[in-house]
Amino acid sequence: MHIAIAGNIGSGKTTLTKQLARHYGYKPMFETTDNNPYINSFYEDMRRWSFNIQIYFLHTRVRQLLDIRKEYDNIIQDRTLYEDAYIFAPNLHAMGLMNTRDFDNYIQTFELISSFIQQPDLLVYLRGDVPSLIRQIQHRGREYENSIRLDYLTSLNQRYESWINSYTGKVLTIDINELNFADKPEDLGVVINRIDAEFHNLFSE
Fold this sequence. Notes:
By secondary structure, the protein is α/β, with parallel strands linked by helices. It contains 8 helices and 5 strands.
């Protein structure tokens, strides 16, 4: 079983990944931002470093996914490689922060690599409005996120909605404006019950 957690910056992907990994006993697969050699430079100068950071995310996510799948049958993934290709890279391109030559190069590379990667069995999408995202970003206090622009988050949210509406796999949407799974055990219970129901549907099909 492969569960993937998707959502905008600050939506609670890492928190939910940890919680579900503990509950189900699955192997968690986390986004490796702490060791990313481009992350600080990217937020300081997005136009200069946008292509570099997207290529870095692409190859590290694929490598990590393949390595973990060799050892574990059941995994929970914090952010998918699809989000980079369908949300972050197109958003950078549309905002003029990635030129067309680099964007086309990135998309062609993604399409080649993704043709060898199987979709998650279940995609859990964390939906939240921009004020909720900002509150959670401020709460966790990552220094490199202090300069994230409001219009950047807003544009990402719009792209997430478009992507989810066109996604062909199994999706469970969790509204973080209504469910505070990070701080309220009863809300986490609601999320787990909804995932269990999706499991039942998957195994009964």
